[in-house]
Specification:
This protein is α+β, with helices and mostly antiparallel strands. It contains six helices and seven strands, in the order ααααβααββββββ. It has helices at about 1-10, 15-20, 25-30, 70-75, 95, 120-125; strands at about 80-85, 130-135, 145-150, 155-160, 175, 180-185, 200-205. The strands form two sheets. It has a four-stranded antiparallel β-sheet. A three-stranded antiparallel β-sheet has the order 1-6-5. A hairpin with a 5-residue loop joins β5 and β6 (about 180-185). The longest helix is centred in the middle third of the chain and has 9 residues, at about 120-125. It is globular, with a radius of gyration of 17 Å. The protein starts with a helix and ends with a strand.
């Protein structure tokens, strides 16, 4: 029983801290096992976690199902968000926003540190063929990305449509939360001030 409890304890805190604080996403990507360290939360659904797949840095990380947050952690992020799909741990919000959810597709340039400036990101996304605007009516096409800024750094990304370009009923955005699941929100500025995800300040499209 004690061993089972210890295994259960070796799961969520770093993932939760990645999401609930303004943490460094590069460090989060460096070592998969760190996403599942000690937490006092027994309500977040980590049942899909496979301890036998845990690896050591800096090797590439085996694919795991994303964690489904409990009601308490979800509401601390946003009062308008709800669970959409499980997703996987080896891609992040930027990868998903760009349409990548395959194995080992975590995307975060090393030069960005804990988040690029908005001007740095604009240059980066322009090189990928996207245009950008602050006027939602100008954003056309099925690849529409919402860009979130916190403390003058770009920290989070969301999509308007699913990867196949379809809308989801009642969803204004769909995004991947760190090593957790995919979540949808009912508006484009859904995050609480303490979430670390900031406010939507740019829309990219192509």
């Amino acid at each position: 029983m004690k061993n089972k409890l210890m295994k259960r304890l070796l799961v969520l805190s770093t993932t939760i801290s990645i999401i609930l604080s303004n943490s460094n996403p590069v460090k989060a990507a460096q070592c998969y096992k760190n996403w599942y360290l000690t937490s006092n939360c027994f309500n977040c659904d980590d049942s899909a976690y496979n301890a036998s797949q845990a690896d050591s840095c800096p090797a590439k990380h085996p694919r795991q199902n994303g964690i489904k947050l409990c009601t308490s952690h979800l509401s601390s992020m946003s009062s308008t968000a709800s669970y959409y799909k499980r997703g996987f741990s080896d891609y992040n919000c930027l990868a998903y926003a760009l349409g990548k959810n395959d194995v080992q597709s975590w995307t975060w340039p090393s030069t960005w540190g804990d988040g690029p400036s908005l001007s740095t990101f604009k240059n980066w996304i322009s090189a990928k063929g996207y245009r950008y605007t602050t006027n939602a009516s100008q954003a056309t096409g099925k690849n529409i990305i919402y860009v979130y800024v916190n403390n003058n750094k770009v920290v989070h990304f969301a999509r308007k449509y699913t990867l196949d370009g379809q809308s989801v009923s009642g969803a204004a955005t769909i995004s991947k939360w760190g090593a957790c699941s995919l979540y949808k929100t009912t508006n484009v500025n859904p995050y609480n001030s303490g979430s670390g995800y900031g406010t939507m300040q740019l829309i990219c499209y192509k």
